[in-house]
Amino acid sequence: MAFPARRGPSILKSRGHTSKQGYHKEPLRTMTTPLKQLLREHRTELLDEWLQRAQTIWSDDGHSENLPHEWTLKLRAIFDDIVAAIDQTPTDTFELNPESPLANHLTQFVTAQARTGNSANRITSLILALKNLLSNRLVTQSHTDALIDLIWLERVFDRLTLLTFSAFVEVRERFIAQQSLSLMELSTPVLRLWNRILMMPLIGVIDTVRAREITEQLLEAIARHEARVTILDLTGVPVIDTGVAQHLMKTIDAARLLGTRVIMTGISPEGAQTLTKLGVHFNDVISRATLRAGIAEALLLIGQRISPIEDRRP
C-alpha cells in the first residue's frame, strides 16, 4: 500500500515570527496593550477627570475660585507629553531627556509654583493623581493581564516624581541663595557720614564667609570715596571672641593699606573683658565706647568738629 510522501513543515512568511505553538505573534512595537487602548479610547475623559482632581487639590489649599486658566493650559500640555511618553515601548528603565518637551513643561510648571510659594506636596499630588487615575482605570477596565503596563506606569511616574522634586529643590535653593546674598549685603552697609568719612555698622554673628564680605565691601568703599577715616561700629555684634577679633584685625590691616584710619566703637564692657582675657590687642586702633564719641573723633581727624549754632538776635 502506497503512502503519500511526507511534506516538511510549512513556513509562515510575515514581518513577525512564528511561535512554538504555530501561531503568528505580532511584533512588540505594534502590539496594542491595554494601556495604549485605554489612552486611545478614553483620552479626553481621562484628561477631564485629572483636571477635576487638580481642581480638588486647588480647593483643598483654601482657594474658593476655580483652577486658574494658565494652570489648565499647562496641565493639558503636561498631560499630552506624559501620554506620549507612556505610549513608548516599555523598557527596563525610563530615561527622560532633559531637553524633551515633557521635561521642559514640567520644569517650567514646577518653577512657577515654587516661586509663588506653593509646596512640593501640591505639585507631587498632581502627578500622583494622574498615576493613580491611570492605574485604577487600567485595572478596572482591562480584561487581560495588565501587569506589564502597571510596571511601566510605575517606572514612568517614578522618574517624573523625581524630576518634580529635583526641579523644586533647585528653584528653592537658588531662591534661598539670592535671599542670603541680599541679607548679607543689607547686613554689611557702608555709609558715608561726611566728606571722606565712612561708617560700617556690624550686626549679628561674624563668621568666615561674612568677614570676607565685610572686607570686600569696606575696601571697595574706601577706594571709591578716598576715605581718610572709617568707623567700625560693633554695637550689634552679640559675641566678640578670638575668631571675631582675628577677622576684624585682617579687615583693619587691609583698610590701613588704603590709607584710612580705623575707629572702633560699641564694644561692650563684657566684650572688652573677654578680649583682655584672651590677650587680644588692637594696636594703633582708636577705640571709643559709643558711636557718638566715634563720630566726634572722626571729625577731629579731618579737622572738623560739631559745635552749636549761635543764637542770632536782631
From TrEMBL:
Coiled-coil region list: none
Keywords assigned: Phosphoprotein
A matching Pfam family: STAS
STAS domain segment(s): 187-302
Keyword set includes Phosphoprotein: yes
Region (Disordered): 1-25
SUPFAM superfamilies xref list: SpoIIaa-like
Lyase keyword on record: no
Protein's recorded name: Anti-sigma-factor antagonist
Species of the source: Thiorhodococcus drewsii AZ1
